[in-house]
Amino acid sequence: MQKRILVKEANPAAYQAMLALDSYVAQTNLDQTIKDLIKIRSSQLNRCSFCIDKHTKEARQHGETERRLFNLATWHETPFFTDAERAVLAFTEAVTLIASQAVPDEVYAQVALHLSDSQIADLILAISCINAWNRIGVCTLRTPAL
Known about the structure:
Layout: H1 7-10, H2 12-27, H3 32-45, H4 49-61, H5 66-71, H6 83-96, H7 105-114, H8 117-139
């Protein structure tokens, strides 16, 4: 495996801009569980092992259960997630996979049943932020530390 750059070393100003967006997302009034689920599910879809490792550890610290974490990849088939969480997960998947299809109206409508316009804006930023981190992690071959 070829050594690749660390963005924070190669371009500290760009890295600081990413940290600023991440900091904004962290202080939003979105439920912490929702923030954790967004980070993990997007990271699963983007195959970012560094972020999956990091955010599952954080979710456990925030009180998330092992059972829900183990079943997050199959959330469609499990009874472990609330209606609001399911709406957010569907929206997260649609935004993360937006290159294959625009966000369907029914997915948007479901999330709008549970979140205010301001929260939807924050949700879009949260999903965009983790997707950007995933792309940084995947293309620079970041992996979890042993």
